[in-house]
Protein: Helix-turn-helix domain-containing protein
Organism: Aliiroseovarius halocynthiae
Amino acid sequence: MIREARKAKGLTLEDAARTAGIGRSTLSKIENNQTRPSFDIIRRIMQTLELKTPQLFLQSAKTDISGRRDYTRAGQGEIQKTPTYTHELLCNELTSKSMVPYISTVTAREISEYDDWVRHNGEEFMFVLSGELTLVTEHYRPLHMKAGDSVYYDARMGHGLISTSKDDAKVLWVSLGL
């Protein structure tokens, strides 16, 4: 995904690495799935290539591998924080996945906490695990949701979540086609 995004922006490996403030060899290793970068490096690459966070959770190389498996023990997913969410990436060791599963704690309490709409390619399924929240989208009225509720939507449509319960809401997200 990163190599394709870099090339689509017309950036050389050297230019993208310099702009992101990382070494050329580091970026090359990331593009070739030879290393797992820190969240800070992912954030810098994301800013350089103007990508949204969920797009970086997927690797892009398509393969015909079958019989693959990955698991994540409860509470052991890779944690990635943003100003509005704390994401726990699930089953994150496999590359070339079609979907990205993750649990998110929604820390935003007001839609104004978002710099802009969250928007990216693909579709998303979301299931509320605990708490209550409001899904705010571009083309629909806000949708109040509570534990056990679910929604499926086109992720190209601007969207954002705000917790409305006393404790931060938790959701299970599955992003497809990023």
Q: What stands out?
A: Residues 78-176 form a domain with the Jelly Rolls fold (CATH 2.60.120.10).
